[in-house]
Design brief:
Layout (H helix, E strand, L loop, with lengths): L3 H4 L9 E5 L5 E5 L5 E3 L6 H5 L11 H14 L6 H9 L7 E5 L5 H8 L3 E6 L2 H10 L4 E4 L12 E7 L8 H11 E12 L4 H4 L13 E2 L2 H11 L2 E6 L12 H6 L1 H10 L6 E7 L2
Parallel strand pairs: 4-5, 4-7, 5-6, 7-8
Antiparallel strand pairs: 1-2, 2-3, 3-9, 8-11, 10-11
Helix pairs in contact: 7-9
Length: 282
């Protein structure tokens, strides 16, 4: 018997989907209506994400997290990416100033939020990540687990963010519905995710861009469908002008390819390889 994830699109609820081959060898499906792509029965586990913080793991990102943690701690400054800077410039603290980051990792973005006047709260499925966040920001409020399991009461936060998280979750509709429940009226939800409409994401060679790490592959059409179904109003969907941080080549090759990347991104209007979304609870 097929699972729910195989039968129905979580974004638009269409039951019309077709098989698609995903680069990692996992079976995938593509919605005929909104073009959402998902992996079939390739959901990640807590052990999988904990392994990202284990130097003996085959997953290569452990040292990146350690470096980020040590850099913030030594400099007392958070080096933020484009999506994170966009949010902090666009949305200023208001009300009780409570902000939750889902997938807070080592606390780097929360550090920047604290410096911008937010009251910080962090959630991560990895206990190792939470330990590192507490080490960096001991005054924060943290929980371990998924947002669906979280113990915060309804309408606890003026803002909720999740950067490169929604493509990992078990069910994106349940996920964003819980986010809406936790937001106050007129609260903001901001997130980023790889853009399946962009050539550089569909051709990505790094294994953590594919199942069992990424299990949902979004584009603007299905993000509109998903958030609209959950009752959240999209304010903006943004992209960087051209792909740079998403490009997996060595830096020297990216520099040599810069004119071509600009041509593809700016002249042809394809933009960067990630979507940054800002939505609001009415």
């Amino acid at each position: 018997m097929e699972s729910k994830i195989q039968q129905k699109c979580v974004a638009c609820e269409s039951t019309q989907n077709i098989p698609i081959n995903l680069k990692s060898g996992y079976e995938g499906r593509k919605c005929r209506n909104c073009n959402l792509v998902w992996a079939v029965n390739a959901l990640g586990t807590k052990q999988l994400y904990d392994s990202a913080y284990d130097k003996n793991s085959e997953w290569f990102v452990w040292q990146n997290y350690i470096n980020a943690h040590q850099k913030v701690k030594s400099t007392q400054r958070a080096s933020l990416n484009w999506s994170e800077n966009y949010f902090l410039k666009k949305i200023k603290p208001f009300g009780s100033k409570n902000l939750l980051e889902i997938g807070c990792s080592v606390g780097r973005f929360l550090f920047g939020c604290r410096d911008n006047g937010w009251q910080i709260h962090g959630l991560d499925i990895s206990s190792k990540a939470i330990e590192m966040s507490k080490n960096l920001l001991p005054g924060g409020d943290y929980q371990i687990g998924t947002v669906e399991e979280s113990k915060w009461p309804e309408e606890s936060f003026e803002a909720i963010t999740c950067w490169e998280v929604i493509e990992h979750v078990s069910d994106p509709f349940i996920f964003v519905s819980k986010v809406k429940e936790l937001l106050v009226k007129n609260g903001f939800f901001a997130f980023s995710t790889p853009d399946w409409d962009n050539w550089i994401i569909r051709k990505h060679s790094q294994k953590n861009y594919w199942p069992p790490y990424h299990n949902w592959f979004f584009s603007e059409k299905n993000i509109n469908a998903l958030l609209g179904r959950a009752g959240l109003k999209i304010i903006e969907i943004k992209r960087r002008p051209f792909p740079w941080s998403e490009t997996w080549w060595p830096r020297w090759r990216r520099v040599l390819s810069l004119p071509w990347l600009v041509y593809k991104g700016v002249i042809l209007g394809q933009g960067g390889g990630r979507i940054t979304v800002l939505a609001k609870k009415s």
